[in-house]
Amino acid sequence: MVIMTDDKDADDPKIYNNETTSEVEPSQETEADYYALKKWELGFLRQECVNLGLEVFYNKYMARVQRSYLSIFVVLQTFISIAHVVVIVTGDQHPTAAIHPDLICYTFGSLIVWISLFAAFKERLIKAHPWVPYVTSCAAIFTLIVTDIMIPLYHAVVTFMNPPLRPSYASHVIFAIYIFLPLSENYNVIILGGATTICYLIIMALITYRLESDMIIKVTTELIYFLCLNLFGLYFRLINEVAIRRTFLDRRELVEGNLLLKFARNQEKELLLSILPEHTAELMEKDIRVMIEKMRSGHHNNINPHNFFRTGTQWRSINKLYVQKHTNVTILYADVVNYTFITTQLPVKSLVDVLHELFVKFDEAAKEFNVLRIKFLGDCYYCVSGVPIKNKHHAKSCVDLGLRMIKDIRDVRMSRDLNIDMRIGIHSGSIISGVIGACKWQYDIWSRDVIIANKMESTGEAGKVHVTMQTLELLDGEYIYEDGTDKAKSDPVLVKHNIQTFLIVPQFCDDSNYYTLTDTATSSRLSVGVKRKTIQIKKERSQVTRNFMQNSMEQFREIMKQTNVEMAKELDRMPIGKFQFNKIFSTSRHTIQHQSSALPYYSNSYTNNDTISDSRLDNLSTFFMCFENKRWEWLFMKEPDLMLKYSVLMSFIVFVCIFLTQVLDKASGIYFWLVMGLSGLILFCFIPITWFKKLWDIYTPYSSEDLLRIRKPRNTVLRKLYDFSDSVMRSFTFRTIIYLVTICILVTCSLAYLIECNYDIIEKEKDETVHKESLLIKDFCSNSWSVSQCLTLAIGMAFLFLRIHYLLKAVCGLTILLFYAWAIFDELHYIYDNSASMNPGMNSKVAHLLLVVFTVIVFQWIDRQSEYIARVDYNWKRQLLKQKEEAEVTKQTNKILVENILPTHVAEIYINRQLKNEFYNEEYKNVAVMFATITNMDINTDISVENEKSVLKVLNEIICDFDEKLQYFDGYLKVEKIKVAGWTYMAACGLDPGRCDSSSSLGPYRSVSGITRTSLMTNGRRSLNPRTSDLSPQLPHRNNSSTRHSNNVTIVMTEFALELMKVLRDFSIENFKQTNPGLLRVGISNGKVMAGVVGSSKPLYDIWGNAVNMASRMDSTGIPGKIQVTKESAEIIQSYGYQCEYRGQIFVKGRGKIPTYFVNVNDKYELVKSTSTDNVSTKL
């Protein structure tokens, strides 16, 4: 919902002090304001429905609304007929015989109307024969007209009534044509209304006024009255169409918004569940949304992801650790054998292709065997079974998965001719799972049993599944096994925990089954199930692998196609009135439930969701039509009324009609002209007040800078009038004052004709001659029916103002009715005594009163219907506003989450591309990679730590501090956190999208720039400066001791490592007070890497290449408190004037012995500069 506010530019001094010669200036209306204004224009609404393909649905909805109005008409017609008959029967002015024709006509007329209109409620009949509503409407109107005309005609010809009778239901028939009957086209009702007017004018001229000397004048006043009635009806149809089309478009927007919100929520959920199990995701999602909502309530409406946690509540202040303990689980670690060697033999792109193919197969197998993949670390793939859903066969699931992995990698080995194999370790026990850190969240597991499983993998044997006794005992003897490896028997960790190990050897068959067991009975028992699984997986592999981003985009596209389809289902839910009498007459029984059975998946989002309420408002009082929530009521009353100008114009037209009617009836006198003149002046002044803005906007060209901006008047007077015209329509107080003044004027002018009807003069003339008396009455007060007709016009206008409170209009109508009843029966009874009546048995004063009463009742019911639809529409707009707020929160949450799963440019590509069994990758020629492991902090023996969760709490605090340093680590090159593995922090520098190699799969998205990074917490700091692909060869240093502005990735990575060392030192001193604080063991290497997302699920961004492997080895073979680098990285560091110390030849797995270096740092963890006397090591 767009809430329109007063224009703020009116008080801006710059507007009036500008010395330019321009006559106008652009307004500050936004696109939403512009659209909100256009939604009050009928032409725009019609075109919008056509553009959105809603015209067919609108016509169907209008058919329902018209049937609702028709049912009200049938009820009103029945009530009016019964009331009229009762009044005739209870009258005593004529014998009973004289009223029999009237009773017969009314009775049979009503029955014929009932019968003719009954077919209009048959939806199936109308669908088959669209002409039915037109025929039944014409038949009903013809019956009403004939019934109404026959009575005065009969009494004029047969009983010679004097004064002649007048038709009873002229106004009622006109209102029925324009408002109640199911006639969809305006030209149809105009033709029918015109024909009805002609019929009634003829009967007035030939019967009612045939004896009057001024018959032409009185027929002319009747013509004015009927023209005004037709104009009333047409005006109601037009404003009602505006209201209903607005309601219809609002409903569509609500349906679309709800579907999009459903999509956003699903996207958010899938995004979270792609990295986090549901139990952890729900807690984190809830906290993120709560924080965003708190910030919004604190007037942080524009929440940017990069400063989200800077402006909001500190994330870590909530003191939560999102971890849970799980027992009875099995952990599997799998590592690609000979991976380090092939990293030096294969191009990086080919290497990652191999990993992607393997990990896709592993992900599919893990899903089949109900195993949760945790993450992959380079070539290491580890997972767990029994989390988050308990699995009593968790050990078997992991063993089956391990056997499948061995088969899959052997298939890849054969197809790609690579010397690779799989080494797998499995252990059963308990774990703690969750997330740590402030940014780049990844679900992980920790525990002693996790360490044991890792050791089982490293001490295992290629092509076999290495399991512990704890796991083997859970397998129920279903597998053939042998003793474990000698390496396992000598491993310190396994020996310390008394772990006995075994090897399960897969037995492959020719039918491509995964494995068989040598035990015949067991084999036969399992073969059927195994074969069934094989067939199932083959079918799954034949399908296109889809990731969650792809599914989300497909859902989004489907939602956009589905909106109009859902609108067809929504037609039965849309409001048609508080009391739906059409249900009594309709025989159609197709229900919403029946329609809902055909709804697709997305429609469940609102059929079972309370976001969109039913068309009925439970919080709306039945009689008074008020919201039970007083605040809602007040806000509804304050809604702008952009149709006020049309109501004011219509009121002035009604005034002109009343004025002409009374002038033709020879009303005169100074008081009459004074009242009319002053009233006309006031009403005329309301026209420019309400129309000035509209006319200015129409005839003034748009701003050349923005087609959605209107040029406002420059002149001070015109500008104030423009702003006042706008504020009047938006102000409840102003429009209520205009309404009350207008209605008072119209009522006063309607009764102004009676000002000169002086009772004393009439009584004095009565004493002279009877003839004189009759002349006086004719001259001064002879057309009392024109007063009643003018008053019905005023009453009708009282109900046709849109944004005036329903109760106020009802009170005005009732007040006018009571006042006129008092005037008729008491104060001015002598004027109405001799006027024409409707029936021979009816007092003429009662006839006048019935006309006004029936008018009030008709307009009251019409207003109730319109008011109800308006309030339902308002309720929808409130829901839409709430949806937009929820969608905004969801959007912000999604953005924060996305940028903490993948780098921003990668996330954009995943969202906008269709990835079908392919992976996103970027190849970089030079990236610095860092592995930093926290050491020298034996948490397990520290008295301040009592259990594993406390250990994780310490680790979380350290990682959060690292992340905080990362976010504030400014420079021309960004440092990207890759992951945390155990106590190791991995980061890289140089992964800017503009710097990736031309062979990257980034394609047309390579030019992404201006990207800022996001942390999920205040402590997850990252550089916020956008980067470009142009990097100058040499940039000045910030100061003598800082190279932060260097364009070399290795230097920047080294400086960041030193910052982390400082953070760990400060943390250790502050929290543990120990003499030997925690130390960081850092390994850095640089070179060509491939970055991307592999696997078929759980999109995790990672990097691969020889530089990554070497950085890991530099860490694992390093010394706490030192930064160990490769020879190539040391050369770069020394070229920038910093010292490196040669360590010697160190054995590196897969590479043999290679030279390594330590970066020299001082006690303050600063790089040590080389002096002129320093010699570069001869080993370089």
Automatic annotation (TrEMBL):
- Its Enzyme Commission number(s) read 4.6.1.1
Keyword annotations: ATP-binding, cAMP biosynthesis, Glycoprotein, Lyase, Magnesium, Membrane, Metal-binding, Nucleotide-binding, Repeat, Transmembrane, Transmembrane helix
Residues of the region (Disordered) are: 1-27, 1017-1044
Kindly give the PROSITE patterns that the UniProt entry links to this protein.
GUANYLATE_CYCLASE_1, GUANYLATE_CYCLASE_2
Q: Where is the composition biased (Polar residues)?
A: 1017-1032
* GO biological process terms held by the UniProt record: adenylate cyclase-activating G protein-coupled receptor signaling pathway; cAMP biosynthetic process; intracellular signal transduction
Its transmembrane ranges are 69-91, 103-121, 133-154, 190-209, 215-236, 646-664, 670-692, 737-755, 807-825, 845-862
Q: What GO terms are given for molecular function?
A: adenylate cyclase activity; ATP binding; metal ion binding
Q: Which cofactor does it need?
A: Mn(2+); Mg(2+)
Q: Which reaction does it catalyse?
A: ATP = 3',5'-cyclic AMP + diphosphate
- First-listed, main subcellular location of the protein, grouped into a coarse class: membrane
Which portions of the chain have biased composition (kind: Basic and acidic residues)?
A: 1-14
Please report the record's description of how this protein sits within the membrane.
Multi-pass membrane protein
Instruction: List where in the cell it is found.
Output: Membrane
Kindly give the InterPro entries that the UniProt entry links to this protein: A/G_cyclase, A/G_cyclase_CS, AC_N, Adcy, Nucleotide_cyclase
Q: Its domain of life? A: Eukaryota
Broadest EC class? lyase
Q: Name one GO cellular component term.
A: plasma membrane
Q: Which PANTHER family match?
A: ADENYLATE CYCLASE TYPE 1 (PTHR45627), AT30656P-RELATED (PTHR45627:SF23)
What is the documented function of this protein? Answer: Catalyzes the formation of the signaling molecule cAMP in response to G-protein signaling.
| Family membership noted in the UniProt record | Belongs to the adenylyl cyclase class-4/guanylyl cyclase family.
- What name has this protein been given in UniProt? adenylate cyclase
